[in-house]
Design a protein that fits this description.
Largest sheet: 8 strands, mixed
Low-confidence stretches: 1-18, 271-277, 386-390, 545-549
Radius of gyration: 31 Å
Shape: elongated
Structural class: alpha+beta
């Protein structure tokens, strides 16, 4: 990102950079021109020409190794006597599938530079004509060979002047750089790359493009496994390929979608299994994070429901106790596994989904508010049907599912690292991590399955249970009220109106079903259907204006870069209205008199990223730091460098200590 900003700033500088470009050669498939990076050349100077292709949508051209089909562009120069030219240079490509084949090439705009050296015998005042012939393939459903002849006339001056700076700088940024990594290739075709910059939080994807055309099978996916300080890519060696060194381009994509490419030479050697240690670490962190999640405020409404169920278990037989506990554990495991599968599917489809992604949708928030209202009405005795609040194995299973859904606005310690690692593992490994998280959440109540005799410690059922049942309805009403407040942050007053109107309809449906009569059930179905019909309109409602804490500005990459360029320290608070952990941190640690005074004293700028309705840029920032949900707190020092990541559970003391440690 820093390199990109540097190039952008250079491109905007008011240089005397004329456009030196040949007449274009055009077709319905592509437009080609020849560019020079000098408006005038100096005797004995090396400068660059570039074949620049602008491909029509749906068409592509090829890299130096085109893959399973195709041919790379070629440029032949006609230079005056005494001139010399280097080889055509190719930027890092992308994989382009076509049926059963896999090609390596480019879409959109691409430039192919080549260096040219003028003789020292040139005299200022002369004009030099450079002629070039180029050929390239433009391919979609069919491949069309294309060619062009280009002419450039360049004056000779004592001092050269630049031209076409933005295009040449963009081409330079896309060129592979020498690799700082150690690499080796096993006889089985597993590429191992080692380097301190390679971490699960920094790298999201990796692809290897070999220079040698027949060395590997191109169509199979390159399975990636990451660990701290290294990665492995499972390549598919071609039949009969000798176990020798392999050279090519390694393209690493970070969590924000930025690509960095490196020319790589992998020596023959054994494989270091990457990912095995990371998987066990992720499972342990997920189990611990899920266990701590029981203490998060998100789960309190469900704990109220379980308190009612525990009251019913007092004096129950071991079989009933074990069945209730196992039902809850299975419900939590099923919920976490389904949530993990949905998250993986959305991300595979290109969606910027993270932990708690469902709460970024106003329709889901409204529906959850109504569910909490229904559970509260059930506990208050407005209607009585078998469900999660009534205990039993089926009810316990439903409670487990509900616990998973309402727990996602909170992120417990250790969970962020576990989720970040899970989303970089193969699908089966990721689902195991989510299941481990669910096991941690279910563990306290699940202990009854192993030790049903613990239920004897609970009070025996009696008339007091009815009063407890009614009291426990109020946490559910409180949860419903909180969700309506979240909806107000997402969809404004109109969203609140929909939520309250739907709540009335849901209450009417519950009461109608509670009558037990057939007309009442019909009325209940009609009221419930009308409430559900209100939900789609919430997704298209305009977002409410964010209300950041600490009177901070809205976060954006440009604003962060500007503040850092000024030399100011910056505190970034990534939060969401539905994130209870975020709100607790703001109340006890961020929005306090001592913290505000410390921020002012050290001239710390505050930027707030609001993820209430999701935001691809904030999602990218979260993933860049190994997180997949809020909160995330970043403290950037004034002197530059990487930010300090503060704990997810903040205290005022932690915040003040971090601020006092800032380098001036």
């Amino acid at each position: 990102m820093a390199r990109f900003l540097f190039l952008l700033i250079l491109a905007l500088l008011p240089l005397r950079a004329l456009a030196v470009e040949s007449a274009p050669v055009t077709s319905p498939r592509a437009t080609a021109t020849l560019l020079a990076d000098r408006a005038a050349i100096a005797p004995g100077e090396e400068f660059r020409l570039m074949l620049f292709l602008r491909l029509a949508p749906g068409w592509h051209s090829y890299w130096s190794n085109p893959g399973d089909a195709g041919a790379p562009p070629e440029v032949a120069l006609r230079l005056p006597e005494g001139w010399s030219a280097g080889d055509l240079q190719f930027p890092a490509p992308e994989r382009i599938p076509f049926g059963p084949l896999m090609n390596f090439g480019y879409k959109g705009e691409v430039g192919f530079p080549l260096p040219v050296t003028a003789p020292a015998t040139l005299r200022p005042g002369e004009t030099v004509a450079i002629e070039a012939e180029a050929t390239w393939l433009a391919c979609a459903d069919v491949c069309i060979p294309e060619e062009g002849r280009f002419t450039l006339s360049l004056p000779v001056e004592a001092a050269a002047s630049p031209a076409n700076l933005p295009r040449f700088m963009a081409a330079e940024a896309a060129m592979p750089r020498p690799s700082p990594f150690a690499a080796r290739l096993s006889p089985e075709g597993v590429l191992t790359v080692e380097g301190e910059a390679i971490t699960p939080g920094a790298v999201r994807n990796a692809t290897f493009f070999p220079f040698e055309q027949a060395r590997f099978l191109n169509p199979p996916p390159q399975r990636l496994a990451l660990r701290e300080g290294g990665l492995t890519l499972a390549l598919s060696s071609a039949p009969g390929a000798e176990p020798s060194a392999a050279e090519g381009v390694l393209v690493l994509t970070d969590a924000g979608g930025q690509r960095a490419s490196f020319t790589l030479r992998a020596e023959p050697g054994p494989t270091i299994p990457a990912g095995a240690t990371g998987l066990w670490q992720a499972l342990a962190l997920a189990l611990l994070g899920g266990l701590i999640l029981n203490l998060m405020p998100c789960v309190f409404p469900v704990l109220a429901m379980k308190a009612m169920a525990l009251a019913r278990l007092g004096g129950a037989e071991a079989k009933a106790v074990r069945g209730d506990a196992l039902g809850y554990v299975l419900g939590v495991l099923a919920g976490f596994t389904a949530l993990g599968a949905a998250l993986l599917a959305l991300r595979a489809g290109g969606a910027a989904a993270g932990w708690g992604f469902q709460f970024t949708h106003p329709a889901f928030v409204a529906a959850m508010a109504w569910v909490m209202l229904l559970v509260g009405l059930n506990l208050s005795g407005v209607f009585a049907i078998r469900g999660p609040a009534l205990g039993g194995a089926r009810g316990a299973f439903g409670t487990g599912l509900l616990a998973v859904v309402v727990a996602t606005p909170c992120t417990a310690p250790f969970m962020a690292t576990a989720i970040g690692a899970a989303l970089l593992l193969p699908g089966w490994g990721a689902l195991l991590v989510f299941a481990a998280m669910g096991l941690g959440l279910a563990l306290p109540y699940g202990a009854l399955a192993a030790f049903p005799a613990l239920a004897r410690l609970f009070p025996r059922p009696g008339p007091w249970m009815e009063r407890l049942r009614q009291v426990l309805a109020f946490p559910m009403y409180g949860a419903a009220a909180w969700l309506v407040w979240v909806l107000a942050q997402q969809a404004g007053p109109d969203g609140v109106l929909v939520a309250l109107s739907g709540g009335v309809l849901v209450a009417l449906a519950a009461w109608a079903f509670g009558t037990g009569a057939r007309p009442g059930r019909l009325l209940g179905v009609a009221a419930a259907a009308l409430a559900i019909a209100l939900l789609p309109g919430l997704e298209g409602s305009p977002a409410a204006a964010p209300r950041p804490a600490l009177s901070g500005e809205a976060w954006s990459p440009d604003r962060l870069a500007a503040l850092r360029a000024e030399g100011r320290p910056v505190f970034v608070n990534l939060t969401a209205a539905w994130c209870i952990t975020c709100k607790v941190n703001e109340r006890i640690a961020l929005d306090t008199e001592a913290t505000r005074a410390a921020l002012v004293a050290r001239n710390v700028a505050v930027l707030v990223g609001d993820w209430t309705r999701g935001d691809p840029a904030i999602t990218a920032l979260l993933r860049a730091h190994g997180r997949d949900g809020v909160p995330l707190y970043l403290l950037y020092p004034a002197a530059g460098g990487a930010p300090t990541i503060l704990p997810q559970l903040l205290t005022e003391g932690t915040m003040l200590e971090a601020l006092s440690a800032l380098r001036s």
